[in-house]
């Protein structure tokens, strides 16, 4: 859609008025209400100096929206508070406030006597497992040999059948006991290893215990998520307990914007709708998002409903607790006729526009639809190609009023 700027030769008085059938209906039928305003011979100095600006009507996309205010938040699953699971003394720090860290990255090393006992338990579980494996194998081997010898004697009718049955019974008991003992020892090893992992030891350090049982009792705190360290409450040499929160990490690559939408507008809001977010810190910049949650309760004080938008924030410009303006796109017309709102005037309770014709300007009664910013959808009364007055139309409306 483009605009033509023209200045008429004379918008003169007196003007000739022609009234067509009054009513409401689509243009082109017998119920269209138009008034033709034509230049005449006299001069109207005020009209002469007024510029008329036209816009040629053409189909284009227009979207209705709901405006609201909100606040930027960090999703709960993108916040991590990191602390030790048992008492320890900090011996090394590898990240500070403002550090960008990756998931699994080491943040600090702590030394703890509790690890000594956990390591001893693990080494004992390993030894018990090896002993159970060897003992069980020997008992099964002995029972198998006894069974084989008894079976040979039975086949040569040297021993009774009950002896063979007893040997078979002893073999089954040995196999069952062996399986049970080995399984129990394996579970003990797994539990002891899991305890060391919970205390902060890595798999490689645990595997090295078998060959180097006198490793230092040091464990690491690692980042559970990627993000930025926003808090660090740790100093080297400090002793901390399991209730301490040493690091706080947030991931702002994606944020939430919670907006308060009035309950009267709630029927137009749906999950998945496009949302445009702006913040005072970055004038002219629009952040795109989608509605992901509509609250099930109404705030009794504001009479509003919380609507949550998820917004991509890869560059990190949106900060937690920022004030945000939210525009929820609720209605989209892919090929609608629209005009600047200034082109539509009120004339005795009717919405009218002025269309340029070969003889002057014609007043059309129109029906409006959704609004978006400074534009409004025209549902009825115009068609593509019409040249509509978007500036200077108020003077035309005044000149078209009947003389008293």
How does this model look, in words?
- By secondary structure, the chain is α+β, with helices and mostly antiparallel strands.
- A six-stranded antiparallel β-barrel has the order 5-14-17-16-15-18. The chain has a five-stranded antiparallel β-sheet with strand order 2-3-22-21-20, with helices on one face.
- Helix 2 packs antiparallel against helix 3.
- The longest helix has about 40 residues, at about 115-155.
- Helix content is about 25%, strand content about 35%.
The domain tally reads 4
Category by helix and strand content: alpha+beta
Q: Tell me, what's the shape? A: elongated
CATH architecture of the largest domain: Beta Barrel
Order of helices and strands: EEEHEEEEEEHHHEEEEEEEEEEEEEEEEH
Distance between the termini: 39 Å
Highest CATH level, the class of the largest domain: Mainly Beta
Overall helicity: 10-25%
The tally of strands reads: 25
Q: Report the major sheet.
A: 6 strands, antiparallel, barrel
What average pLDDT do the residues reach? 82
Stretches where pLDDT is under 50 for at least 5 consecutive residues are 1-33, 40-49
Tell me the strand percentage band: 35-45%
Alpha plus pi helix count: 5
Q: For the largest sheet, list the strands in their spatial order.
A: 5-14-17-16-15-18
């Amino acid at each position: 859609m483009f605009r033509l700027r023209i200045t008429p030769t004379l918008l003169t008085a007196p003007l000739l008025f022609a009234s067509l059938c009054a009513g409401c209906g689509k243009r082109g039928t017998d119920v269209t209400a138009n008034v033709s305003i034509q230049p005449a011979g006299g001069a109207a100095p005020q009209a002469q100096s007024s510029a008329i600006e036209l816009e040629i009507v053409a189909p284009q996309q227009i979207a209705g929206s709901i405006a609201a205010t909100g606040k930027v938040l960090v999703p709960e699953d993108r916040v991590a508070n990191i602390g030790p699971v048992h008492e320890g003394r900090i011996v090394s720090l590898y990240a500070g406030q403002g550090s960008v860290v990756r998931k699994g990255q080491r943040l600090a090393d702590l030394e703890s006597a509790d690890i000594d006992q956990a390591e001893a338990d693990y080494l004992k579980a390993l030894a018990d497992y090896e002993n159970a494996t060897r003992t069980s194998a020997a008992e099964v081997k002995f029972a198998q040999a006894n069974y084989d010898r008894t079976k040979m004697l039975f086949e040569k009718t040297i021993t009774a059948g009950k002896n063979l049955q007893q040997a078979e019974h002893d073999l089954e008991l040995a196999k069952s006991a062996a399986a049970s003992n080995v399984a129990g020892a394996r579970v003990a090893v797994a539990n002891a290893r899991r305890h060391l992992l919970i205390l902060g030891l890595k798999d490689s350090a645990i595997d090295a215990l078998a060959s180097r049982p006198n490793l230092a009792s040091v464990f690491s705190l690692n980042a559970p998520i990627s993000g930025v360290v926003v808090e660090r409450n740790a100093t080297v040499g400090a002793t901390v307990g399991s209730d301490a929160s040493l690091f706080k990490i947030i991931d702002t690559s994606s944020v939430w914007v919670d907006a308060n939408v009035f309950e009267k507008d709630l029927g137009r809001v749906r999950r998945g709708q496009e949302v445009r977010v702006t913040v005072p810190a970055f004038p002219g910049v629009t952040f795109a998002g989608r509605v992901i949650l509509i609250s099930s309760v109404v705030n009794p004080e504001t009479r509003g409903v919380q609507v949550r938008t998820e917004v991509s924030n890869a560059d990190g410009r949106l900060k937690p607790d920022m004030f945000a303006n939210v525009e929820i796109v609720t209605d989209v017309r892919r090929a609608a006729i629209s005009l600047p709102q200034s082109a539509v005037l009120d004339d005795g309770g009717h919405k009218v526009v002025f269309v340029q014709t070969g003889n002057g300007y014609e007043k059309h009664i129109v029906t409006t639809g959704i609004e978006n910013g400074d534009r409004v959808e025209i549902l009825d009364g115009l068609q593509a190609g019409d040249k509509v007055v978007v500036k200077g139309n108020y003077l035309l409306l005044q000149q078209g009023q009947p003389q008293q």
